[in-house]
Structure formats: C-alpha cells, structure tokens
Hints:
Elements: H1 6-25, E1 34-41, E2 49-56, H2 59-79
Amino acid sequence: MQLENLGRAVELQTELKLWRDAEARCNPSVFKEAALRVVDMAHGHQGQAAETTIRFVDSKHLLPFVRYQIERVVGELREIGVQL
C-alpha cells in the first residue's frame, strides 16, 4: 500500500467494521428491525439535508445488502493494496 492511500484505508477499515457488525446483528435470534437511512445534501445548501428511511422487514432482505457492502469495501481495500 502506498502512503497516500493510508487515510482512505483507515476510512474503509472503519466502514468494514460497521458492516461486519451489521452482519452479525442479522442473526434471526438477535434481529428485530433495521432501517437504512439515505441522507444527501438538499439542493447543495450547506446545513440542509434530505433524508429517506427504508425499513426492512426481516434479515433475509437486509443480509444480502450488507454482504454486498462488505464485498465492495473489501474490494476497495484490495485495490489500494491492503491485504485482509
């Protein structure tokens, strides 16, 4: 890994931990309800945000999304030279 990628590697490692924690919580005996919140800047005005909440009924709908995100982050880490 090159030094200029260090900041990005730390960000991705942090994101990967969050996704792996989410995957662990998808256990049917633990899982109760999940919500995906999508937040973006509304019309580019600083301090304003538009938010959409998408609720998932059960883990069978959430788990594929979480695993996709884990694969995406792992792929990005490998691209910048981080070996997992």
